[in-house]
């Protein structure tokens, strides 16, 4: 099975060691000291390095340090299963649309406070059939996540993966220890073929959940910035900045500070 795991945070840390196959890890964030208590695969030595790279090397898996969005979502193509270990609904709706359109099974995982959920979509219904778009819902879900809950969730995912790899259908929605049957919603826009997340929305600046980093997308010329700051490689570190081809991560206490730093160092 070719599997892509999106997100190397708390749920990713619980799930990754339980799976086998040809696995690719995707993550956009950097390891911080505050992650170490819940994200047990990282050690002090990993601080300030990209999460995807640390775990990719540790488990000998392919990895991509990237922020999945509508413009690069086709990276999921050719895989047998996608596992969502992200912490935001927007990415889940995006994955759902791509996987529904291209008929790729995917598993949603989420922890909201003391609630854990797992749901595989294998064609009979989709994520949007069950979850409506509510603005602001599930922001920063990984803050304060219970580690035991994440471990339980990992085992549920492991079983669903085994089921799907043997050609069986989804078990439905697992929520806090119970399986709930799920059916296609006849009003679901995604099942009717409307893919608004795949068309793309642009968020210029976002703050990562459970992290002190802000991300800026677009709005700069990577090669020019690289030359000016004497960076090396396909991405590089400069002071508080991680500079990638299409995005920049910067450590800051507030959005205002992040914008100020960006203007000073990267320009626009
Ligand atoms: Zn649907």
Describe this structure in words.
The structure is a single chain. The chain is an alpha/beta fold. It folds into 2 domains: 2-199, Rossmann fold, CATH 3.40.50; 212-265, no CATH class. 28% of the residues lie in helices and 22% in strands. The chain is built from 8 helices and 13 strands. Strands 3-2-1-4-5-6-7-8 form an 8-stranded mixed sheet, sandwiched between helices. Strands 9-10-13-12-11 form a 5-stranded antiparallel sheet, with helices on one face. A hairpin with a 2-residue loop joins β7 and β8. The protein is globular and about 55 Å long. Zinc ion (ZN) is lined by residues 125-126, 128-129, 185, 188, 190-191.
Average pLDDT works out at 91
Radius of gyration: 18 Å
Extended strand count = 13
Helix content: 25-40%
CATH-wise, what's the superfamily of the largest domain? NAD(P)-binding Rossmann-like Domain
Task: Name the ligand types.
Answer: zinc ion
Beta-strand percentage? 15-25%
- Based on secondary structure, the structural category is alpha/beta
Name the CATH class of the largest domain.
Answer: Alpha Beta
The string of secondary-structure elements, in order, is: EHEHEEHEEHHEEHEEHEEEH
- Stretches where pLDDT falls below 50 for ≥5 residues? none
